[in-house]
Amino acid sequence: MSQQLVETTDRPQVEPFRVTVPATSANLGPGFDCLGIALGLYNRFDCTPAQNFEITGVERTYAGPDNLFWRAFNATREVIIERGIPDPGQLQVKFDAEIPNGRGLGSSAALFVGGATAANHMAGNPLTPQELFEICATLEGHPDNVAPALFGGMTASFREGTDVYAYQLDLDRRFFFTALIPDFTVIPDQSRAVLPERLPIPDAVYSLSRAVVLSHAFGAGDAEVVSAALSDRIHEPYRGRLISDLAEIRARILGQGALGVTISGSGSTLLVVWDAAGEREVPEAKDLPLDGLTATWTAKDLPVHMGGPFVDPLGDL
């Protein structure tokens, strides 16, 4: 994509608008780099067409061309221009971010999806969700967070060369999720570095078999199988060393009746899976036993976000 971006007077007239993108949690235990779910925690981007690109609502350090929203906007804009579609132009965007950075809740995917969605909207939505998925997954380097952010619900995805594929999975409404967010981050490069270069075949089989069964059990509403299938041997035993309190939190939360506690993405957030239709009442986030731990943890009950990012006129908000 080396084509120079040129101004044009033929672009559609667009009123100010807001793009809303959900948080995402990848892996869901054994589904390493392939399973993901969209959750009801949001980044909002208030966009106004302008002569020059400008970002507000973030520290000046993050408001330049390296900003992930900006990169995705320009990458999508290039694709649009290459197809002979009028240049959507530039914009001023104000960030309102609920998704914490560096906590394994898809903050980078939300920026990529937000920027791509904004450019596509300004051009009259010529690109399909699949095409936006390809752009964002290429920028992100892996599709497991981008897929649920764009398609909503629970997804399975993979890459084959330069192609990316995703499928939305059924998810029974009985399942409920709580994010346990600590006051520390895990650097993605560090979380990758702790993974082994080689994996014993029994460990690979352990996780792969559970990931396949888990994806069906979530749809079938089989809480017993979901609980049994949430464990992993590919990444959690290694990444868990970077997350203080993990073993203690797991013991406490499982004692409250949770089906499982998984590492959200590369961490540091933990994702709790509950059975809202089970015999035990699901405790509210504020009542979870998170005191007396090494780190300070904040619990948030998060509904599953269905559908893709929202685009709304700013005048209606």
What does the secondary structure layout of this molecule look like, with pairings?
Blueprint: E1 17-26, E2 35-50, E3 54-56, H1 68-82, E4 90-97, H2 107-122, H3 129-140, H4 146-151, E5 154-160, E6 163-169, E7 175-182, H5 188-193, H6 201-220, H7 223-229, H8 236-239, H9 246-255, E8 260-263, E9 270-275, E10 297-302, E11 310-313
Parallel strand pairs: 3-4
Antiparallel strand pairs: 1-2, 1-11, 2-4, 2-5, 5-6, 7-9, 7-10, 8-9
Helix pairs in contact: 1-2, 1-3, 2-3, 6-7
Domain GHMP kinase C-terminal: 217-273
Keywords: Amino-acid biosynthesis, ATP-binding, Cytoplasm, Kinase, Nucleotide-binding, Threonine biosynthesis, Transferase
Family: Belongs to the GHMP kinase family. Homoserine kinase subfamily.
Write up this protein.
Catalyzes the ATP-dependent phosphorylation of L-homoserine to L-homoserine phosphate. Belongs to the GHMP kinase family. Homoserine kinase subfamily. One of its GO terms (biological process) is threonine biosynthetic process. It comes from Boudabousia liubingyangii. Helix content is 30%, strand content 25%. Mean pLDDT is 91; it is low at 1-9. Strands 1, 2, 3, 4, 5, 6 and 11 form a 7-stranded mixed β-sheet that branches. Strands 8-9-7-10 form a 4-stranded antiparallel β-sheet, with helices on both faces. Helix 1 runs parallel beside helix 2 and helix 6 (201-220) runs antiparallel to helix 7 (223-229). It has helices spanning 68-82, 107-122, 129-140, 146-151, 188-193, 201-220, 223-229, 236-239, 246-255, and strands at residues 17-26, 35-50, 54-56, 90-97, 154-160, 163-169, 175-182, 260-263, 270-275, 297-302, 310-313. A hairpin with a 6-residue loop joins strand 8 (260-263) and strand 9. It is globular and about 55 Å long. The chain folds into 2 domains: 17-170 and 305-316, Ribosomal Protein S5, domain 2 (2-Layer Sandwich), CATH 3.30.230; 175-302, 2-Layer Sandwich (Alpha-Beta Plaits), CATH 3.30.70.890. With 317 residues, the protein is α+β, with helices and mostly antiparallel strands. The two termini are 36 Å apart.
